[in-house]
Design brief:
Helix content: 25-40%
Strand order of the largest sheet: 2-1-3-4-6-7
Structural class: alpha/beta
Largest sheet: 6 strands, mixed
Radius of gyration: 24 Å
Mean pLDDT: 93
Length: about 575
């Protein structure tokens, strides 16, 4: 069918629905409902769709559109649930099960007939993680079922007036409900509140006398202090005392009226340091200027520790697991350098297989556009961040004494996708989406993509992927050669399944031969064209973009980070992060 996707942002769910509907053979177009109803009306007139699907919509579909066309709305709540903050309530009320409902647009919000509904188990994770994983799995299944039923023509959607539908209206989840009482709330309560607002909208609070929003939270089992007191920093995050413990807060966002020129999410210690010393340390720093101790933990955490670190290493027999999890999947200069140091440490361990990736959610989305945007010199920080990313990818490409596996529990984009492709094998959860391109952020790209992408998919397909700049489902990634193994596991089961598969790979009698073949291939490729030449040529193109103030990249980056329109250069699908 001809399907039009209407979305407030081409976010992770919109991209997944686009990719999976395309895989089913449907012709799919996308319109962003970011400039009122007129662009939606214009897209409907131009494309004359047989069906309209709204995977993520913050505004109502125009009445004249839904009266003339069937419009299916994806609501992140079970059948009968209504209101704009469904997942917020699920996290706040500690629901064990929730659902996604596909319903037909009508005048009443979330009141239309139900075309499909899919339940899911609620994991004890942040709202955005839940949205991108368990909720996304349920939404994809429900949308495909609803579209199949609509195409069949015989299905009668279920009205919400039916006795079997229990209607519950849930109000907008306001900041008053999110407020943290540092004197009274337990650590578990504080963590739950922080996780319920981790990406959007954050929790409004006061830190160092300034009003700002807190994003994300993780428990700490050793540090203690007066409730609300800042205790330490670690890798850009800050630790804050609760009534009975402490929590780590990775990111902060100053209020727009605070006078801060960068009122968007970025590493917490960096935000506070800029307040303390008026930016003397620059926005490149993610630790300094606060007078707080840096709390360090080893890469290999002792069993039983309940604390936060964004990079960890552990070993099982001859298999090493280097896990990393960065907010939004973005990797700053500091994060790239620390991950490279951890990778070099992992190479000193006696393993034959090394697995890279988070236990769940994002793999990587490449360079950190928020940190870059906040820098005193964004062009220079772009350049520094990209070189740090290149250093990491090159280290993976030059590893010849063991097999490296990139395990994609979640999405990967731009340089993060190329980091995955630098590994010998890519294992992808079946619900992931890849964006192996840079064009929609106005970039040529680096991270050795001109070497890694063509060697996997061929020159013609590499050219198509980077030119069309569209999301790729896990299934299509497997078909094209971007992924070597698809892992049909639930989000919470992926890590255990990967460990099982990695242990089997390490025990394979053919592994030494495979490692030897890999080393020989790297030597042969180096003789044909050294990696240094790929890097030099890519970086020359990127340097010209970064240091050209008129290059579209700067407007696109700023618009993406600040969530504002970028005029004629507005991208369809930003490659450097995820809006939710």
């Amino acid at each position: 069918m001809d399907i039009l996707l209407v979305a407030s942002a081409f976010n992770s769910l919109s991209q997944r629905i686009y990719a999976e509907l395309t895989d089913q053979g449907h012709r799919v177009d996308v319109v962003l409902a970011t400039h009122g109803a007129d662009p939606v009306r214009a897209a409907v007139r131009e494309h004359r769709p047989e069906l309209i699907v709204a995977p993520m919509l913050k505004t109502a579909v125009p009445e004249d559109v839904w009266r003339e066309h069937t419009c299916l709305i994806v609501h992140p709540g079970p059948a009968g649930d209504r209101g704009p903050s469904s997942l917020d309530w699920a996290v706040a009320e500690q629901a064990t099960h929730w659902g996604v409902t596909v319903l037909q647009a009508e005048a009443g919000m979330d009141a239309g007939d139900i075309w499909a509904s899919e339940p899911f188990a609620v994991a004890a994770v942040g709202k955005s993680d839940l949205y991108r994983n368990e909720a996304s799995d349920a939404a994809a299944k429900a949308v495909l079922e609803a579209v199949r039923r609509y195409a069949d023509g015989s299905h009668k959607p279920r009205p919400q007036t039916a006795d079997s539908v229990h209607v519950v209206w849930r109000d907008f989840f306001r900041q008053e409900r999110r407020r943290i009482d540092w004197e009274r709330d337990t650590t578990d309560t504080v963590v739950r509140k922080l996780r319920g607002a981790d990406s959007q909208p954050g929790i409004r609070d006061e830190v160092l006398g300034r009003e700002m929003f807190l994003h994300g939270g993780h428990p700490e089992d050793e540090l203690r202090g007066r409730p609300g007191e800042l205790l330490a920093t670690r890798n850009g995050a800050v630790c804050r005392a609760t009534r009975d413990g402490a929590v780590w807060i990775p990111e902060l966002r100053p209020r727009k009226n605070s006078g801060d020129p960068a009122p968007f999410r970025r590493p917490a210690a960096s935000v506070l340091a800029s307040l303390v010393d008026d930016g003397e340390n620059g926005e490149h720093s993610e630790h300094g200027g606060l007078g707080l101790p840096e709390s360090r933990v080893p890469l290999e955490l002792p069993p039983g520790r309940r604390t936060w670190s964004d990079i960890r290493y552990r070993q099982s027999g001859t298999t090493g697991f280097l896990t990393f999890s960065f907010p939004g999947g973005a990797m700053s200069t500091d994060q790239c350098r620390r991950l490279l140091a951890a990778y070099e440490y992992a190479l000193t361990r006696p393993t034959s297989v090394l697995v890279l990736g988070a236990a769940r959610d994002f793999f990587s989305n490449g360079i950190h556009l928020n940190v870059i945007e906040a820098a005193a010199d964004p062009a220079e920080e772009s350049w520094t961040n990209l070189n740090a990313m290149d250093d990491l990818v090159e280290a993976v490409l030059r590893t010849t004494d063991r097999l490296v596996v990139a395990a994609l529990a979640g999405n990967a984009a731009a340089g993060g996708a190329m980091l995955a492709l630098a590994a010998d094998e890519v294992w992808s959860r079946t619900g992931t989406v890849l964006n192996p391109h840079y064009r929609r952020m106005g970039l040529y790209g680096s991270e050795f993509w001109t070497y890694s992408l063509p060697r996997r998919v061929g020159a013609d397909t590499a050219r198509r992927l980077t030119t069309e700049a569209l999301p790729v489902s896990a299934a299509t990634a497997g078909h094209l050669g971007l992924a070597d193994r698809l892992v049909p596991a639930a989000p919470g089961d992926f890590a255990a399944e990967v460990e099982h598969l990695a242990d089997a790979l390490a025990a394979d009698p053919d592994l030494p031969r495979r490692i030897a073949v890999k080393a020989a291939a790297r030597r042969s490729d180096e003789e044909v064209r050294p990696l240094a030449e790929y890097r030099r040529d890519e970086l020359a193109r990127m340097h010209a973009i970064f240091f050209d103030p008129e290059a579209p990249y700067h407007a696109l980056r700023s618009a993406f980070v600040r969530k504002t329109p970028a005029g004629s250069v507005r991208p369809l699908a930003p490659a450097g992060g995820d809006p939710r």
